[in-house]
């Protein structure tokens, strides 16, 4: 049942993003790589039974780290004369936490079933 819930979560949010008419603005390879790599490091450092939970938590933490790194990069290199660029830079800035929260939500849905396994 949890796989159904996780799948439904992905489908609903996929439809919402697709309905914006600009689904490609939600894709940034660097942010996705940063969050995925950070989440994988958290999962690898976890004990055997906690890897899925730590994957989600690591994605959440790494998403916020990516946010702050991006904020520093924007603040350091932003040309004040070109204020029109700020919107696009801020849009990419928020993708790290978004990816982290999505990964956290999916792993939270999936880990509930593995934690409720019957004890013998």
The gist of it:
This protein has 120 residues and is mainly α.
Spell out the blueprint of helices and strands.
Blueprint: H1 2-18, H2 29-45, H3 51-77, H4 86-93, H5 95-115
Helix pairs in contact: 1-5, 2-3, 2-5, 3-4, 3-5
Treating each run of at least 4 consecutive H or I residues as one helix, how many helices?
5
Look at the helices and sheets and give the structural class: mainly alpha
Largest sheet: none
| SSE succession | HHHHH
Domain count, please report it.
Answer: 1
Which percent band covers the strand fraction? under 5%
Can you count the beta strands? 0
Helix content: over 70%
Query: Mean pLDDT score, rounded?
Result: 89
**Overall form:** flat
Q: Rg, please?
A: 17 Å
Q: pLDDT below 50 for ≥5 consecutive residues: which ranges?
A: none
Distance between the termini: 22 Å
Outline the structure in words.
- The chain is an all-alpha fold and 120 residues long.
- It is 75% helix and 0% strand.
- It has helices at residues 2-18, 29-45, 51-77, 86-93, 95-115.
- Helix 1 (2-18) packs antiparallel against helix 5.
- It is flat.
- The two termini are 22 Å apart.
């Amino acid at each position: 049942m949890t796989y159904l819930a996780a799948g439904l979560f992905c489908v609903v949010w996929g439809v919402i993003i697709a309905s914006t008419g600009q689904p490609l603005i939600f894709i940034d390879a660097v942010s996705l790589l940063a969050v995925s790599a950070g989440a994988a490091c958290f999962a690898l450092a976890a004990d055997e039974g906690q890897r899925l939970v730590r994957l989600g938590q690591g994605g959440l933490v790494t998403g916020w780290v990516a946010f702050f790194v991006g904020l520093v990069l924007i603040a350091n290199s932003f040309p004040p004369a070109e204020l029109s660029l700020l919107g696009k830079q801020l849009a990419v800035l928020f993708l790290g936490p978004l990816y982290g929260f999505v990964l956290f939500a999916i792993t939270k849905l999936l880990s509930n079933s593995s934690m409720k396994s019957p004890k013998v």
